[in-house]
Amino acid sequence: MFNVRMEKECGCFKRSGMTSIKTFDNKDEALLEATEWAEEMNDTFCHKHNFNVVEEGSDLIIKVEMN
Ligand SMILES: [Zn+2]
After folding, report:
1. Per-residue confidence (pLDDT) for residue 37, from 0 to 100
2. Total domain count for the chain?
3. Between the CA of residue 48 and those of 2, 27, 42, what are the distances in Å?
4. Residue 5 contacts residue 57 (beta carbons within 8 Å)
5. pTM confidence score
6. Cα of 4 to ligand 1 centre, how many Å?
7. What is the structure's pLDDT at 58?
8. Are 60 and 3 in contact (CB under 8 A)?
9. Ligand 1 mean position to 47 CA, how many Å?
10. How far apart are CA 61 and CA 59, in angstroms?
11. What domain range includes position 6?
12. pLDDT digits (tens, 9 = 90+) for 2-59
């Protein structure tokens, strides 16, 4: 099992109503989804936060940084 999860939920994330964790059977699928998810948030959120994907063991964490 591979989890894709948010490191923390910023205000934009909370307002979006997205779920903060997604689970996949396969790592390639998890990585693809994590990358697309981070891109979507970078495109649609406030642009003050920057999202990127980091691997931690079998999990993919979406880090949140201030631009
Ligand atoms: Zn934001």
Report:
1. 97
2. 1
3. 28, 29, 9
4. no
5. 0.92
6. 19
7. 87
8. yes
9. 6
10. 6
11. 2-66
12. 999 999 999 999 999 999 999 999 999 999 999 999 999 999 999 999 999 999 998 9
